[in-house]
Amino acid sequence: MLGMSLREAAAALRCGQLNPIELYQKCLSLIKETRFLNAYINVAEDVALRQATEAEKRFRQGKPLGELDGIPVAVKDNFSTANIETTCASQMLKGYIPPYNATVVQKLLDQGAVLMGKTNLDEFGMGSGSTDSIFGPVKNPWSYSKQYREKNSGSRTIADDDSDWVIAGGSSGGSAVAVSSGTCFVALGSDTGGSTRNPASHCGVVGLKPTYGLVSRHGLIPLVNSMDVPGILARCVDDVATVLGVLAGHDPLDSTTIQDPFQTFTLPDDIDVTNLCVGIPKEYHAPGLSTETLSLWSRTADLLEDAGAKVVEVSLPHTRYSIVCYHVLCTAEVASNMARFDGLEYGHRANVEDSTEAMYSATRREGFNDVVRGRILSGNFFLLKQNYEKYFLKAQKVRRLIADDFVKVFKSGVDVLLTPTTLGDAAPYEDFIQEDNRTRSAQEDVFTQCANMAGVPAITVPAGLSSRGLPLGLQFIGQAFREQQLLSVAKWFEKQMNFCPLDFYKHLENRDICQRKSNIASLL
Ligand code: GLN
């Protein structure tokens, strides 16, 4: 049951083969069994039961609400959820209960989705490992697969199981793990520099960052307003297309959403890639790219060519400045966004009454982690009167050049770009935390943030396993508002790779800690 795609589950619910309450119960048991992965900050057990019960009633009356009726979903904890705590994994918002739903959350609920809970992330979405959360790091389920254990037992001791696991990627690591461990069918992430695609790739699921302006940001707690987009994580491309159809479209509460109505689409099973022009940007041969990812990338280019597509090398010459510009623009917007957290309006307030300034300062010291404070300081530095032109304005100008590179390439006849999503497979936690957040993000976001700088859509699709037994994904980048074309190519590729997100369950290791997991396997 939990190995189905969203579409299959929806069809089974519709014809009565599946019951929403039963489906909710299976997902809930799985959430409990996989607690150790730390994917969920808050499991909305009661709310979800109520929603599943209502869905069951609707099905009984033959009046389902929409495509997602009775489907268990999860939402990253930086989307506002009415009457459900929304923390951004930060001390600052602990205990904050929004009075309204983010537009995208409301749209899911309007379709009858069952909200299983809120997922873990790097504090305020700042990171790429889901390791910087006040609720502790998220663990990648593939760390517990037999392949990974066997391949890696030689190089590190696995006596203490808890120290031998790899990161989930981030910052939407909780959402990626929630999908890849089968606890929900689809999860919302956010993507500012790669936060949906990075964990999707590391956890072996599909992750879409839609075009900026296609999906409402209302109620998504902002990180970088000019780059943030809600992302969709699911088990397959078809499911992403279904959910995009539900979420996309103008929102009067977000003035950056486009007015044109979104044409929903269903992808055909047989996709023809002949006549498709696929660009391979030469600048994406970045230092640190693993040989495995490189070979996967070039094999995929060959595969496309064999299937009749035209594959051409292209140049996006300003790519090499992108990560630095991203840093300047990201921190500058973070500095102004985070100013709202002053101890008066939301969440945490320090118990200091000497002066308003002292209260602000203590609140922010106690409420934010080092990463958030560091980004606020950098951002304010870039925005100082004497630095504004030198850094902020300059970065804005370079951003335009980066976006123009994409426009030029697409104008020259290229339909989509094919690139790696990450440099390699997921790092072991112990190695990952040796570096500081900024260095890690610079490495992890190298192939993803450019699409945010340009506002274009991008999707990661799982392609296979590395020699260490961990998932590897590849990224397709498309033209603005041409999601249908992008998802078609992604679906074609998915079919060639035939990767199953839940496969690691078949390979659970027979160790003590995996005793619990044999229960999981029996649920599937
Ligand atoms: N890793 C990036 C950062 O830390 C991505 C953030 C995001 O997409 N939310 O800025």
Automatic annotation (TrEMBL):
Top EC group: ligase
GO CC, one annotated term: glutamyl-tRNA(Gln) amidotransferase complex
Entry keyword annotation includes Flavoprotein: no
Entry's Gene Ontology BP terms: glutaminyl-tRNAGln biosynthesis via transamidation; mitochondrial translation
Compartments, record wording: Mitochondrion
Reactions the enzyme catalyzes: L-glutamyl-tRNA(Gln) + L-glutamine + ATP + H2O = L-glutaminyl-tRNA(Gln) + L-glutamate + ADP + phosphate + H(+)
Keyword vocabulary terms for this entry: ATP-binding, Ligase, Mitochondrion, Nucleotide-binding, Protein biosynthesis
Any one GO molecular-function label of the UniProt entry: ATP binding
Entry annotated with the keyword Nucleotide-binding: yes
Residue ranges annotated for the Amidase domain, each copy included: 34-487
Gene3D superfamilies tied to this protein: Amidase signature (AS) domain (3.90.1300.10)
Catalytic residues (positions): 76 (charge relay system), 171 (charge relay system), 195 (acyl-ester intermediate)
Chain's role: Allows the formation of correctly charged Gln-tRNA(Gln) through the transamidation of misacylated Glu-tRNA(Gln) in the mitochondria. The reaction takes place in the presence of glutamine and ATP through an activated gamma-phospho-Glu-tRNA(Gln).
HAMAP family reported for this sequence: GatA (MF_00120)
Subunit and interaction comment: Subunit of the heterotrimeric GatCAB amidotransferase (AdT) complex, composed of A (QRSL1), B (GATB) and C (GATC) subunits.
UniProt name for this protein: Glutamyl-tRNA(Gln) amidotransferase subunit A, mitochondrial
UniProt organism field: Pyxicephalus adspersus
